[in-house]
Design goal:
The structure is a single chain. The protein is mainly α. A hairpin with a 2-residue loop joins β1 and β2. The protein contains six helices and two strands; from the N terminus they run αααββααα.
């Protein structure tokens, strides 16, 4: 588990550094360069997936159900990278509407906001038994709650 957490923290740290560099370059030059939009898109996608991995990792257990989440996490990463790439590659001028929005906005809204929200609950449901609290975890929570009530 430490390997997964360490890798996720490193990816998150590198993503934040890349985002910071893209912002710094935009501030220093007085405007965003073409490369900075791509750096932001890739770094944001990796940061979000690294954060999901950190949230799914459980302390005190081996990999558990987290290895089963590789496919949905990879799917979310690919969807996000694809949505950002499509939005960056489409021309901005006189674009037709898609579901009532400009195409680029619709792709970002649905590709970054909606599609991952549809994938992750399904992945959670499929790995529910592996990732939920064990009886020992529940007893530990009950003991902590009764200790807290006794102190009050």
């Amino acid at each position: 588990m430490k390997g997964i957490r360490s890798a996720a923290v490193i990816v998150l740290l590198l993503s934040m550094v890349a985002i910071g560099l893209a912002y710094a370059a935009a501030i220093a030059t007085g405007g965003a360069a073409t490369w900075s939009a791509w750096v932001m898109a890739v770094a944001t996608s990796f940061a979000m997936v690294a954060t999901m991995a950190l949230g799914a990792a459980r302390t005190g257990q081996r990999c558990g159900g987290l290895r089963h989440l590789f496919v949905p996490f990879a799917a979310v990463l690919l969807i996000m990278l694809g949505a950002f790439a499509a939005a960056l590659l489409l021309p901005a001028a006189a674009e037709p509407l898609l579901l009532g929005l400009p195409r680029r906005a619709a792709i970002v809204l649905f590709g970054i906001g909606v599609l991952p929200v549809l994938i992750l609950p399904i992945a959670y449901a499929l790995t529910f038994d592996d990732l939920t609290l064990t009886e020992a975890d529940i007893e530990r929570v009950r003991a902590a709650a009764s200790d807290s009530e006794a102190r009050q």
